[in-house]
Write a structure and sequence with these properties.
about 300 residues, alpha/beta, five-stranded mixed beta sheet, 12 strands, LysR_HTH_N, LysR family transcriptional regulator, DNA-binding
């Protein structure tokens, strides 16, 4: 059966008459009759019994309807999409991000992007990096943000901003002169807030400390960078964090120093290798990169 045959067949199955199908499809009754006759001729059997102007489907029609229903839905979806594209319908950009970047970088970036893309629909979600890879590969997201390069053959990781590993402490912990100098493992004193054992940044910090002959003791361990930042802002201790989370903290509540030895932390734009970005998505990525770099330049004092 051709696509037009399926459309007419489904309309008749739903309304039960030639005239009703014609109204549903916005075509003439003779056109519906002609298409139905052609479909039955191709199939080599009648699909309906005609009784006093009404059509009653035969068992073969019910079986055919069950098999072609999904195809008909797909066809209608394609027609709606084509009509939307023709009418310049609202574009949808699907962005996923790790939680820390969704809070530290995205709000300002989205505000800047909206000035040029006021009508574009944007769907935001937060995933961990392993989940982000799956979302991109399955086509459930257009672009993503992470502090990790997943090094996956189907994912393109584009660095769009870079800062340095940062130590953040409650305001008043260090003098102004000390804040201007990097701080190493030996300088970590007082209550320390650690990151989960399986966190890449947390592993980096512990490895750096051990290389310097220091074994840090964390009485408080958190799962997310935002929680660590909030605890530092509340005066609960000192944490070693990514520069984007540190830069988004309240400058009145915290102080920041660069970790020594210097360790770069990159913000990656992740996309599926087989799916180029739309104009709106690319401009959103540009806005995120610009916002992240400006955030790092401002930093926390």
């Amino acid at each position: 059966m051709r696509l037009r045959h399926i459309e007419v067949f489904h309309a008749i199955m739903q309304v039960g008459t030639i005239s009703g199908a014609a109204q549903v499809l916005h075509i003439s009754q003779p056109a519906v009759t002609k298409v139905l006759q052609h479909a039955e001729l191709q199939l080599g059997m009648p699909l309906f019994e005609r009784v006093r102007g009404k059509l009653y489907p035969k068992p073969e029609a019910h079986r055919l309807f069950a098999e072609t229903e999904k195809l008909n839905r797909d066809l209608q979806g394609i027609r709606r999409l084509a009509a939307s594209l023709k009418g310049r319908a609202v574009e949808t950009v699907r962005l996923v991000s790790t939680p820390t970047l969704a809070i530290s970088v995205l709000p300002q970036a989205m505000t800047a992007w909206r000035r040029e893309f006021a009508q574009t629909r944007c769907e935001l979600a937060t995933y961990h990096t392993s989940e982000i890879v799956n979302a991109l590969r399955l086509g459930e997201a257009d672009l993503a943000l992470s502090l990790q390069d997943p090094r996956h053959p189907g994912i393109v990781a584009e660095p769009i901003a870079q800062g340095m590993l940062t130590v953040m402490a409650p305001s008043g912990t260090w003098s102004e002169a000390e804040c201007a100098q990097p701080i190493g493992p030996e300088g970590l004193t007082g209550e320390l807030i650690g990151l989960a054992d399986n966190d890449p940044l947390g592993e980096m910090v512990v490895a750096s400390c051990e290389a310097g002959g220091v074994t840090p003791v964390f009485h408080t361990v958190v799962q997310t960078y935002q929680i660590a930042r909030s605890l530092v802002e509340a005066g609960a201790g000192t944490a070693v964090l990514d520069p984007f989370t540190a830069a988004s903290a309240s400058a009145a509540k915290v102080q920041c120093r660069q970790w020594a030895p210097a360790m770069p932390v990159q913000l990656f734009l992740l996309t599926a290798s087989h799916a180029p970005l739309s104009h709106g998505a690319r401009e959103l990525a540009n806005a995120i990169g610009a916002t992240a770099r400006a955030c790092l330049e401002k930093g926390c004092q």
